[in-house]
Amino acid sequence: MANGQSSVPNMPNFPGKEHFRGKVIHSVDFGQSDVVQDKSIQHIAVIGAGKSAADMVYEVVKAGKTVSWIIHETGNGSLGAAAFAPIDLPTPYKNGDANISNYNLAEKTAGGCHFADFWPLVAEKVYVYRGDVKLLDGNELYLNDKNGTHFPCDAVLCGTGWKSGLDMFENHTLMELGLPYPKDIEPQEVTAKWEKLVGKADEQVLRRFVMLRNPPKHYHK
Description:
The chain is of the alpha/beta class. The protein has 2 domains: 8-163, 3-Layer(bba) Sandwich (FAD/NAD(P)-binding domain), CATH 3.50.50.60; 171-213. It has helices at residues 27-30, 51-62, 118-125, 171-177, 188-208, and strands spanning 8-9, 23-26, 43-47, 66-71, 126-130, 133-137, 140-143, 150-152, 155-158, 162-163. The chain starts with 7 loop residues before the first strand and ends in a 13-residue tail after the last helix.
């Protein structure tokens, strides 16, 4: 089995989707879609806070579309702000200076792929909202905020990540193989074992890196 954890798109179930006259596309299908080229699509909403959402924001705003970027209030993306750091930023990490992608190379090297004009474009041309989609209706998108914010929308691009790609296995098989399984079926003795180990590891880390004991407020799952 080599399907990994990034093979089943996580598509939100937007209320009113059946009455929406625009397109709803996951990031996995964005490259094969005609959203950028289609001149009838002018108002685009991008959902998500990760790198795939940022890439779609960049592509459609460069194409001259009106872009609304919607980020869940408690979300920070799979990599958070690290996904958008300038690629030429000085870094203490060993591989920092060799982290620029060039997908045309025969070796198919991978790494970061960032754009120097990303933040200026977002600041000047992208509407950013923190919240969730309340309703899709016709060619309008409504947010669940207290102001009843809504705006024209011809396409919704979902940078919303992935579902577990391991649903073909029963839970007991997942446990036997050491693969991710639902937390609520974990035996108490296993939970206790890992809580003890994680607690010891946390204490070692906090003893060594004292500044981490009192972090700023942040979303934690």
